[in-house]
Amino acid sequence: MRRTIAGSNVVLEIIDARFPEQTRNKRIENIARRNKKKVIVVFNKVDLIGTENARKAAQEMDLKKETVFVSCTEKTGTAKLRKAIFEASRGKSVKVSVVGYPNTGKSSVINLLKGRKTMRTSSTAGFTKGEQYARVSEKILLIDTPGVIPLTEMDETSLALIGARSPGQLQEPELAAEKLVKLLQGRGKEEICGVKIKGLDTEKAMEEIALRKGKLKKGGLPDVKAASKMLLLDWQKGKKNL
Ligand SMILES: Nc1nc2c(ncn2[C@@H]2O[C@H](COP(=O)(O)OP(=O)(O)OP(=O)(O)O)[C@@H](O)[C@H]2O)c(=O)[nH]1
Ligand SMILES: [Mg+2]
């Protein structure tokens, strides 16, 4: 990571607009600062929370950095992002490293800038393995990188909620799913998969969801583990109506 940043001229830090604080990587920003590289912070997935909410969150963050708001699925913010890269490079030929947490949409942002799908993307965290190059114009070379999580490890439940660890990689998906239900209850969501969750104990809620989704063990008992993985996957994929 250090070498990639040092070898590039501009750094695009991709963060998930739904969790800007949690998916911001201060270590990357520090490396960039020490190497005197300009950082552009890209709030991606704004389609999932709305650009205005993302802007508000950015103001509260005290970023003191160039920020751009994009959605790769709705293809918005591309012109502003191109302009920011152009200004950061002062029109010279540049290498731009695209860095950030797993699953924030680094490869998707490259495809957005490129205008077509050159990088493979996936809802599985840790999908991009090595560095990959994509030329988007005569002057701009983008470097896709594998997602990195800072060494000050977050617990797996938190990583699951921000999408940095896939459901299949979790030791206890049930804990993460319950935390997600709690989070959604706190945000005033009334039902999940047709199950009324308002005021419901989270463990009970997950059992009901398993039953509703037909996730059953032998003997007809709810398969909460399977239902938890399913719910987390939909959440990580950014499904709007859970
Ligand atoms: N709703 C929404 N989903 C997005 C957006 N950008 C990316 N995604 C989804 O987020 C997931 C991760 O996208 P990637 O581009 O593979 O993310 P990455 O940062 O390259 O991931 P790694 O290579 O695993 O670190 C995929 O399921 C994408 O479809 C966006 O703007 N909006
Ligand atoms: Mg990738």
What's the layout of helices and strands?
Elements: H1 2-6, E1 10-16, H2 26-34, E2 38-44, H3 51-60, E3 66-69, H4 78-89, E4 94-100, H5 106-114, E5 132-135, E6 140-144, H6 156-161, H7 173-186, E7 191-192, E8 195-196, H8 202-212, H9 224-237
Helix pairs in contact: 7-8, 7-9, 8-9
Give structural notes.
The chain is of the alpha/beta class and 242 residues long. Helix content is 37%, strand content 16%. The protein has helices at residues 2-6, 26-34, 51-60, 78-89, 106-114, 156-161, 173-186, 202-212, 224-237; strands at 10-16, 38-44, 66-69, 94-100, 132-135, 140-144, 191-192, 195-196. The strands form two sheets. The protein has a six-stranded mixed sheet with strand order 3-2-1-4-6-5, with helices on both faces. Strands 7-8 form a two-stranded antiparallel ribbon. Helix 7 (173-186) packs across helix 8, helix 7 crosses helix 9 (224-237) and helix 8 (202-212) crosses helix 9 (224-237). The longest helix has 14 residues, at 173-186. The protein is elongated and about 65 Å long. Guanosine-5'-triphosphate binds next to helix 5. The site of magnesium ion (MG) has 5 residues, from helix 5.
